[in-house]
Amino acid sequence: MAVWMCLGLFLAIAAALSLGFPVAFTLAGVALAFAGIGVLSGTFDPVFLEAFPNRIYGIMTNETLIAVPVFIFMGVMLERSKLADRLLHSLALLLPGLPGGLGIAVVLVGAMMAASTGIVGATVVTMGMISLPTMLQRGYHPAVATGTIASAGTLGQIIPPSIVLVMLADVLANAYQRAQLGMGVFSPKTVSVGDLFAGAMVPGLLLVFAYFVYLVALGFFRPSLMPPMKEGAHSHVKLLSLLKLAAGPLLLIVAVLGSILGGLATPTEAAAVGAVGATLLAALQRQLSMTTLKQVVYRTAMMTAMVFMILLGASLFSLVFRGFGGDELITDFLNSLPGGAIGAMVVVMLVMFLLGFVLDFIEITFIVVPIVAPVLLAMGIDPVWLGVMMALNLQTSFLTPPFGFSLFYLRGVCPEHVATSTIYRGVVPFIAIQFVLLGLLALWPGLATWLPQKLLGG
User: Fold this and answer.
1) pTM of the full structure
2) Which residues fall within 8 angstroms of residue 305, CB to CB, at 6 or more apart?
3) Conformational region of residue 325, where left means phi above 0, alpha means psi within -120 to 50, and beta covers everything else
4) What pLDDT, in 10s, does the model give residues 314-361?
5) What count of other Cβ atoms lies within 10 Å of the Cβ of residue 235?
């Protein structure tokens, strides 16, 4: 009976989401409805629901999660400073003869914005509005242009300070402690935001490099798809002007990531430094006003409320799922797979990728990860490697139709003559690149674990 209740719980949530109901209220409402059915049928003990107030209090007092709204504020404020458009313009003019030079400029600015903001939506919309008209005007194929912009915007998923890494760190820390306690370790270690930030650095840079290689190769072998700019068209542009523009975001990146990785500040403290720095940059760019500040605060509050409402709904869902014995079912299923930890990891990665077609990273992080992570960690999988693998996998959820948020963001700023199917085709090569990097990370976990170990050893 418990198996059917767990299956029915998932199917009911999937049906409600497909009808367009809000995620947070769907998770909580469906979970409560099934809990009531379980109480009436004698398959659910209502004592599990008594833990929900403690869950709410734990979320409210979680110092790691406090970093989420502060990072969101930093990202929105930096978007308002309009540095991205100036950086993109200067970079494009400095790469006139390079095959795919304008595409490379888009990826470079996308990576810098990712390391400064960590917000995918802000980066994609900004880059789409700034660069897409220019790329189309210079003869770029619409699929190449839109695919490059959408993929560059999602770099904020894997390049620190990524909000998804902050949330994953909190979920994995709890899962890691549960796994260790289950194995009889009564002084359990944990995994921190700094560990995941350090672990994601090398894979994030490798992904940017892989995008560069693809764009250069495409520009060299298929120049008709992305024609290079004419030599000397803007020779008056100097490197010094670019460095002046990039100095602010680079200092912000160093201040935020350097303080976290160096152990000088907690993620929340570093996020506060970043928020103040982004506000100063906006003021220096003459983009700061009371109206702008109100807009930034309002957007930050809206995004934060969405994240935390989903977290509360997911917490209630996990309690009900556990009350029906779902944890034991998942544990037995993953342990019964051939190949041990490797087989279980492959299945989990595949399920997360498929869920990315219909759910965004927040739902997957708060619903799926707490269920499967304790089992995988109990099998001996490194928590930092697991977190980076999941983050890179979740990045594809922004690019996979029909509900890829990066595709939605870009569709909103695309000209009408650019078909939605063109955007879908454009992101396919970049999704393939992400899969290649996932394979490399699976073969060489040291790509994710080397830097955290080095910093810890230091």
Assistant:
1) 0.81
2) none
3) left
4) 888 888 888 888 777 787 888 888 888 888 999 999 988 888 877 777
5) 10
- Please measure the distance between the N-terminal and C-terminal CA atoms of the chain and give it in whole angstroms: 53
Burial class (CB in 10 A: 0-12, 13-18, 19+), 268: buried
Give the whole-angstrom CA distance, residue 407 versus residue 420: 8
State mean pLDDT over 374-384: 88
> pLDDT value at position 458?
45
How far apart are alpha carbons 222 and 228 in whole angstroms? 11
The pair of structure tokens assigned to 91 is: 């970079």
Closest of 373, 386, 392, 401 to residue 435, by C-alpha? 392
CA angle 223, 152, 420 (to 5 degrees): 75
pLDDT score at 439: 92
Find, among 197, 217, 154, 167, the residue nearest to 404 by Cα. Answer: 154
Q: Alpha-carbon Rg of the chain, whole angstroms? A: 23
* DSSP annotation of 458: -
> How many Å apart are CA 381 and CA 343, to the nearest integer?
12
DSSP three-state, residue 356: coil
**DSSP letters for 209-255:** HHHHHHHHHHHHH-TTTSPPPPTTTTTT--HHHHHHHHHHHHHHHHH
**Domains of the chain: which residue ranges?**
2-15+22-457
Q: Which one-letter amino acid corresponds to residue 132?
A: L
